[in-house]
Amino acid sequence: MGEEVLRLSREKLEPEHPETVIAMGDLACTLKGIGRVPEALALLRKVSVESLDFIPDVRFHLACYECLSGNLEEAQQLITEEIAADPEKKEQALQDSDLTAIHKFIQSL
Q1: What is the pLDDT of residues 57-81, one digit of tens each?
Q2: I want to staple 75 with a disulfide (CB 3.0 to 4.6 A). Which of 15, 27, 67, 100 is the partner?
Q3: Are 43 and 79 in contact (CB under 8 A)?
Q4: How far is 36 from 56, CA to CA, in rounded Å?
């Protein structure tokens, strides 16, 4: 269903339209939830280019997906930026099992 929403958003709205980008982000979360992490990561990378200004937590989720995909340096960079922008995210990051591989790094921030 998320894929259909995204298809319709792209068809009816511009690809850069906020609603289309939101549909992309929603689909990425759904894909990750059903174990399609590589697809979710690819989609969220596209979303991050367009959406850091108007979709909350894109950088946080992208750090999670990068971490799950074994891209630990990229995950560290993203979570560092996220925590710098919102220091309260550090505690959330330390509790997120998707970021387990970089928890020690996060503690050092």
Answers
A1: 888 999 999 999 999 999 999 999 9
A2: 67
A3: no
A4: 22
